[in-house]
Amino acid sequence: MSVEAHEFLPVPPPPEPRHPRSAHRRLTSPWATVVVMGITVLWTIPTFGLLVTSLRTRYDALTTGWWTVFADPHLTLDNYRVVLTGGDTFAGGITPYFFNSVAVALPASIFPVVLACMAAYALAWIPFRGATTVLFMIVALQIVPIQIALLPLLQMFFNGWSIGPVPVFPNLDNTATGHSLLFGTYVPLWIAHTMFALPFAIFPAVQLRREAAS
Fold first, then answer.
1. Is residue 182 within 8 Å of 157, Cβ to Cβ?
2. C-alpha distances in angstroms, 11 versus 8, 14, 15, 64?
3. According to DSSP H, which parts of 86-180 are helical?
4. Of 68, 80, 107, 176, whose Cβ has the fewest other Cβ atoms within 10 Å?
5. DSSP-derived 3-state class of residue 182
6. What are phi and psi of 55, to 5 degrees?
7. Is 190 within 8 Å of 153 (Cβ atoms)?
C-alpha cells in the first residue's frame, strides 16, 4: 500500500484594508461624531424655524423672530385651518388639490418604475449588440434640460408626432371643440413625468441587476 504525499500551500494573509487605519480612526472618533451632530443641528435650525413660524399668529411672525417663542410660547393652529379649509382667504382651501397631487404623483411614480425595471432587465441580462450604446444614450438624456422639451411635448399632444410617414404619436385634435382629446385629463402629465423620470430610473436599475447577477 502506498501513501501519497500532499503538499500544503500556505494561506496568504488577508489583504490590507483599502483605507488607512489612521483615517478610519479619525472618521470614527468622538470628535468627528460631535462635528457631524453639530452640522446636523445647524442644518435643521432653518427648518425648525419654519415649523415654529407656521404655528404663530400673523402679527407675531411679522413683528418678532421665531426664536422668541421660547420666552412667549403663544402657538396656534389657525394657519393650518385657513390653508386646509380656505377660511376668509379662498373658498375650499387646498384640500381639493391634494387629490390632484395624488392622481398625478402615484401613476407618475409607478409607470417609470415598471418601465425602468423592464428596460433594465433587457439591458443587464439579455446580451444584444448595441446594449452599451443604448445605455449610454439613456444616461446622456439625464443632462438634457427639461425646459427645452416642454414646447415639443405641447405640440405632440395637440398635433401628434411622426417620423416621415410613420406616426409615432397620433393626432388627437378634436375638430369640433378645437382642443386635444387629452385636454383636461391627467394623461399628458403622466406621459411627461414618465418620460422625464425614465433615464434616472433605468440607470440605477441596470446597475442593481448587474450586481445581483454577479
1. yes
2. 9, 9, 12, 71
3. 95-125, 131-140, 150-159
4. 176
5. coil
6. -100, 5
7. no
Are 200 and 108 in contact, with CB atoms under 8 Å apart?
Answer: no
- The CA dihedral of 204, 207, 212, 214, to the nearest 10 degrees, is -170
* Tens digits of residue pLDDT in 112-141: 999 999 998 888 888 888 888 888 888 888
Query: 107: which residues sit within 8 A by CB, 6+ positions away?
Result: 186, 190
| Cell matching residue 95 | 384640500
Long-range contacts from 90-98, C-beta under 8 angstroms, 24+ separation: none
Extract the C-alpha cell encoding 94.
387646498
What does the block give as the cell for 101? 397631487
For the purposes of burial, counting CB atoms within 10 Å of the CB of 138, is it exposed (0-12), middle (13-18) or buried (19 or more)? buried
Confidence band for 53, pLDDT divided at 50, 70 and 90 = very high
- Rounded to two decimals, what is the model's pTM? 0.56
